[in-house]
Amino acid sequence: MRLLLVEDDNHVAAALSAVLARHGFDVTHARSGEEALQALVPEGNGFGVVLLDLGLPDQDGYEVCGKIRKRTSTPVIMVTARSDVRSRIHGLNLGADDYVVKPYDTGELLARIHAVSRRTVHEDPQSGSETELLLGPVRIELPTRQVSVDGSVVQLTRKEFDLLALLAQRPGVVFRREQIISEVWRTSWEGTGRTLEVHVASLRAKLRMPALIETVRGVGYRLVAPTG
């Protein structure tokens, strides 16, 4: 897999590139946001994943993430020292698929890269005949992967859509955290649990319906269909 590493520290980039190469990745190193954006022309330029450090010399990493998402659907993993949920949600809102917080374990990073690089086009297990799900003001169109609330389209990342569509198939049914992680992230890696929490928080904020997804403490999540 080709991987674009966006990192301004040459020593960090060299060490990380060596590790990634040993695990079969073809790494291209971009030292700035502008280099990264140029490397992704045209249409992602064949990269399977972008590993984006937010501390860049020429542009804010969040700004670069937003520009990348406008140019390509290539999965983006943000690398940040900011561990607060608000910062992570901001990155997801801009189109990032995942994040790792410094300092991180190499095994964690590799697991996240493999998880986001897998294609997760959602398939409806209910015979495949249903093309949309209606939940009060929320409309989920499965073929186009479009979500709207009261007729207004809500921009979701791939993982956010997959998560919402999964829960919406069976409103009121509790999905275990392990089941969600397995079906949406295609992995059983335990560390993905924090990513799940951030994606749930991001969905609640984007849909402006915090009560739509209910946390079942110690078990998982369920979607509560609006009554109005």
Outline the secondary-structure elements.
Elements: E1 2-6, H1 10-22, E2 26-30, H2 33-39, E3 49-53, H3 61-71, E4 76-80, H4 85-93, E5 98-101, H5 106-117, E6 132-135, E7 138-141, E8 146-149, E9 152-154, H6 158-168, E10 175-176, H7 177-184, H8 192-207, E11 213-216, E12 220-223
Parallel strand pairs: 1-2, 1-3, 3-4, 4-5
Antiparallel strand pairs: 6-7, 7-8, 8-9, 10-12, 11-12
Helix pairs in contact: 2-3, 4-8, 6-8
Organism: Streptomyces bullii
InterPro entries: CheY-like_superfamily, OmpR/PhoB-type_DNA-bd, Sig_transdc_resp-reg_receiver, WalR-like, WH-like_DNA-bd_sf
DNA-binding region: 130-225
List the main descriptive attributes of the protein structure presented here:
single chain; 228 residues; alpha/beta; four-stranded antiparallel β-sheet; 8 helices
Strand content: 15-25%
In quaternary terms, these chains amount to: single chain
Termini gap: 47 Å
Total strand segments: 12
The Rg value, from CA coordinates, equals 18 Å
Order of helices and strands: EHEHEHEHEHEEEEHEHHEE
The pLDDT mean sits at 85
Strand arrangement in the largest pleated sheet: 2-1-3-4-5
Keywords: DNA-binding, Phosphoprotein, Transcription, Transcription regulation
Domain Response regulatory: 2-117
Pfam families: Response_reg, Trans_reg_C
DNA-binding region: 130-225
